[in-house]
Structure formats: structure tokens, C-alpha cells
């Protein structure tokens, strides 16, 4: 955990005082402990499966259907990690969406009351340097940020080169996001009034264009998420 924290600090230029690492079983148990999470699903997502030699998706156990659903831990985990029917950037967007929904919907008091049972589950699945005595303060922090705006800065091929990232640029973007420049007031447009003493002549010109056949139109789409700073709730 210390190594992971050190690498993240080096990349981002931020000092991380506390770290929590949750494995897949721990995440599933956490969502179940809070009674599940409600999310809006925009695409059909496979549970399980793999791509065969022809690039076809086979061996799918089930599908998570589009629409607003209340997910238990198992399905929330697959919502966050499924990528065979989409791509890594869509998966990252869904993970940010899920983080925002969990923060909004978790009941800090209820979770604190369940701490003894959660501690047993967490023993093998969650690693953290947060002391148990500090948990009430963290629960209060969660309560305070619920409903507040939590902004997310995404690093994609739109703003960095993943194969050769510019770490200085990444740190600058993070600092700009944390400390945005104050908005400058734009100048008010001036209004001009013109009065005429009589009718003016107008000239109308007609233009006719003849088409000899249908024109081709090309539509391109990209699943890469925006590189702009957005609220976590808008990731869904």
C-alpha cells in the first residue's frame, strides 16, 4: 500500500495522508452492507464471458440490462468492471458514476453501527491506514459531502498520451482543477439604435441549387469520455 501511495503521489504531485485499498470481495460486501445502490445503466453489460479467436463475445453468464436499477454488491461489481462489450474508458466512467452514487446513498450512521460485522469482512479484503477511533470523523465527512458537488478530472487520449504521459502537464492540470482561476466578468454588449425616416429599398436574390444525386454523410462516434472537469453525478 505504501508503494502504491508513493507512485500516485509522484504522478499527481499531491500528498496523500490516508489510503484505503478494497479488493473485489470487499467492494461487494461493502455495497451489500449499505443495502445496495441505485444507478442508471445506459448500456447492456455482460456478466462473465470472453472473446473468442474471431473477436466474438461468448460464454456470457447473464446481462445487466439498461435502465434505473437497484444493484446488490455482486451486480454493482460487474457494472463497475465489465468491459468486453465496451472499452476501458466506458468502464472508467461507470466506476466514477458508482463512486458518486455510493457517496450519495450510503447512510454513515447505519454503516458505523454495522462496523463490527464489517470489520470481520474487512479483515481480509480491505487495507487502510485509517484508525478505528477516527471512523466517526470520516462518517461525518461523508455526511457533509453528500449532495455536494464532487468533480472528477479524467485523463484520456484527449489530453495526455497514455503511452508516454507528460507528468508535469498532469500535475498542472490537477492544480488548475483544485485551484481554478477566478472567473472574469465579460463586458456588456453595447446597444445601437438606428432610426429611419422612410422606407428603404430591399433587394431579394433567389438562388437555386440542383442536386444530381444523394450526398454521402459520415457519422463518427467515440466512447472516450470527456477530458473536462465534470461532476461525478454526470458520469452516469
Automatic annotation (TrEMBL):
Compositionally biased region (Low complexity): 180-226
Q: Where is the Cell envelope-related transcriptional attenuator domain?
A: 5-106
Instruction: Name the InterPro entries on file.
Output: LytR/CpsA/Psr_CW_biosynth, LytR_CpsA_psr
Coiled coil: which residue ranges? none
Region span, Disordered: 180-230
Its family remark reads:
Belongs to the LytR/CpsA/Psr (LCP) family.
Q: What is this protein called?
A: LCP family protein
